[in-house]
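# nightly structure sweep
# worker-07 picked up a monomer target from the shared queue
# config: single-sequence mode, recycle default, output format = structure tokens
# input follows
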Amino acid sequence: MIYRHRLAEARDLPAIVAIYNDAVLARTSSCDLDPVSVAARQEWFDTSHPSRHPIWVGHPLDSPRTVTGYLSFEPFLNGRRGYDATLDLAIYLHPDHQGRGQGSYLLREAITHAPQLGARTLATTIFARNQPSIRMFHSHGFQEWGRLPGVADLEGVIHDVVVVGRPVDNTSGARP
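# output follows
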């Protein structure tokens, strides 16, 4: 399947939340223990800024209104200004679209777009047992920067978290 992306719109939020909640229930990539509501994610969506912290939705080439995944560029480490050169990526895919190239497509596009957002570095955290995600990020030049042992407790199931990151090509001279 060929995937594309576009900037998320307000009408996409229910699909974004449904995809996120699939990950919450699967315990694969979120430390939330309970599904979230659209209302609970509304502020996150409303405060995203297309010029610095956009949210993209992935969709099949022939169906631009069908949301099959999303990527968000998040502030790094709680958004302290000294970290503005780094963006934290979050990628979530509908279960029916995992392992089909969409995550890799979104990540490749994010790396290409990052200099336009003023980023010099991209980073993310991944559960150590989530080997498909770790392999995907490694295949796009991300390296393991650290491992946080036992920091996630999903109702008694303890997880290590891996921090991965990479510099981006910022030949435009853009600054955060």
